[in-house]
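RECORD TYPE: protein structure
NAME: Alpha/beta hydrolase
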Amino acid sequence: MPSALTDDHVTTGYDDDGTGPALVLIHGHPFDRTMWQPQRDAFTATHRVITPDLRGYGATTVVPGITPLSRFAADIEALLDHLGVDRFVLGGLSMGGQIAMECYRAFPDRIRGLILADTSPAAETPDGKAARVATADRLLAEGMRGYADEVLDRMVAPYNTHAAPHVHRMMLATSPEGAAAALRGRAERPDYRDLLTRVTVPALVVVGRDDTYTPVAEAEAMHAALPDSTLVVVDGAAHLPNLERPKEFNTALAAFLSSLDSPGSPTRSS
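PREDICTED:
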């Protein structure tokens, strides 16, 4: 597995395979880059697919404390500079989607298309901040197992037993220090709702029909705010449709990527 150094000497693990237009996919919490394996399998024949481990996750250096979304975004930019990738389609799921929004805020001219899956653009509420900090404290005190056991049926719908073992393994393998730092950073995240109204590239919004973390209504609101977007609701999935229903997710992603090569084609649909 290749790696790259950030400006603060964090080693970033990543996969980089395939040829063609660059497609960068950012994983969610508390996972790692292997959550994108079905998309890597499907798209490396047509695209250069880059999937990093975020700091604190997978093979990337764990940095205790607080990791704001802006730091994650800077890490993504540093990796792409290292790889010599100037323009790319950027996608993220859940926390990864929020990082993708932060990337668009920080370096919009490099992004030619945006994929926002099962995510939310709103700033955290006071109750949400308290809950994230409390969860961070719990992970540091208890480790990942209790948390992973409790949230598994919300991450993956209980009827999707094929996806649950991989998701559970990723959660158990995550560093409590890295996950806690990300939770504390997300508690202080900015509000991206106004930013979405100013996005000038096509966007794909995807959500699992049974997602309770980021319900369909939130995806519909993002779709309404984005000037040029496609909304896809994946039936038979909860918070991780790319793993729960990879065929349906990949079909939506393939259509979106194809539309980017047809500038005259309308992309706004539901």
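COMMENT: The beta strands are 3-5, 11-17, 22-26, 48-52, 88-93, 111-117, 203-208, 229-234.
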